[in-house]
Amino acid sequence: MTDLWHKLEPHLPFVQGPSQYVGGEFNAVRKDPASVSVRVAIAFPDVYKIGMAHLGMQIFYGMINDRPDALCERIFAPWTDLEERMRRDGIPLFSVDSHRPAREFDLLGFSLQSELGYTNVVNMLDLAGIPLHAADRRQGDPIVVGGGPNGSYPEPVADFFDIVILGDGEEAVAKLVDIVKETRDRGEILRRAMREVPGAYVPRFYSCDYRDDGTVRSISALEGAPMPVKKALVADFAGAYFPLKPIVPSAEVVHDRINLEIMRGCPNRCRFCHAVNFKNKLRFRPVELLVQQAEMLYRSTGHDEIALTSLSSGDYPHIAELMTRLNVRFGPRKVSVSLPSLRVDEKLPELPRLMKTVRKSGFTVAPEAGTEELRRIIRKPIRDEDLLATAKAAFEEGWNHIKLYFMIGLPHETERDIDGIVETARRVSAVGKQVAGRAADVNVTISPMVPKPHTPFQFAAQRPFEYVEEVERRLSRLARGSRVHLKMHDPRTAYVEAVLARGDRRVGRAVVEAWKLGARFDEWSEHFRFERWMTAFRNAGIDPDFYARREPGRDEILPWDHFDVRLSKETLRADWESCRKAADERAQELVVGG
pTM for this one? Predict the structure, then answer.
């Protein structure tokens, strides 16, 4: 395999963050490619500081490198300054571990975490010298694999991938490595993956037909491909691989800490949440195992923070016991124990006390809607009294401000719900005054709702810009003169995200067009250009409103209907109708109540 370091090194003094391209971090694995049968590269379609904070990359990197017959290296999207130099001097996309070209690996796996990262996937394939479309690849090209949460609705990028993994990837990746070890014939690998790899979706074995009105007429499986494709699930989560010697980053990362995965799934069923509906089977690691893993992770990394990660860590059934034991063990060593954004319920006010070792900055809670009534409708039934009790406990334990996350543009949202966002934040600020003698700062992040696949809200339309912009103006007026600080997410990025989430294979043409027009790092606000995307949609013959702002017909085939995530379309439709019924009942109550 080729080593590109001698070509890359002269450019590093002239780019931002050169250390992110160097590799050789503590706990990084180096293997001789000649000593293994299968060479795998994990590609994260964002920069090092984002990708190295992602637990999934550490899991697959460690799991594959634990095999004597395989190696795994990491690839990140180069920032625009280095990309310009790479293209000018003919340097292809490379791994940070050995600086070998991406196209020299047998398997190239992309983590699909965000719709706005799709142009980075295309850009990385092009930089690697790999044909963008799977149909154009030949013997000797890497098998390009996608996975992650967006793997459950991959149609807009399906043409770029040879295989997409639906669901948990541990067993699927292990089996795929086995297959590549046994054969290098591209067609045989894809056929065997389709039959043998858990959760494997091989787009070439599926055909989509469309009606004149643009809706899907049919989705057909070819050559005996499974229909539907069933989500892969690691049943023995406690026994599943977990990296106990993760790489310690040598450059800045967004979350420089130990990530201890305590459970998968979520007991709640928020109607807007794709992650909850996609990862819908609850699995836990036992407390004793987690304490042992935390000790081993601390000894192998030296990090001074342990984050207990999951979709809803506060719902781990033994959270108080786990945090108490970790605090006793790690508190004397000045290691803090933290939780991600928390769900508010009657037991949450106890958690700030258990997080007393955390460096006190912002305590984060996500009520999502401004009133109890709308929270019940979206099935996030947070009571105001529990939210305020949690805020009080956080202020008493030393937090100096609270972060609140809300969505706007939710189905059945009213002016009362919108006003409730600022009213709720003001009440939280007032609780801070009760505790500390002065009103507390409350930072409120407002995001337009994106109706995601595999949720009851997949049957909803996204609200138009005019509505969202008026709501944002209203919230700004209501927050004036208070300690409530609003951060509004751009509704245009949410619009593009909705198109890419709800799209079919035809939308892939627009992704390529946007990339040709210069789209890179669209998740970064300084790089996102809405006009570029609208031009791309026009050039590709795509009507974005058709995907983002239209309620699907009752019997319409959706572009993700051939994926089985263990919640049927009928179940989601019934839930959507139940949501509508609850909203109608609420409207009647408001009329009666005056």
Answer: 0.94
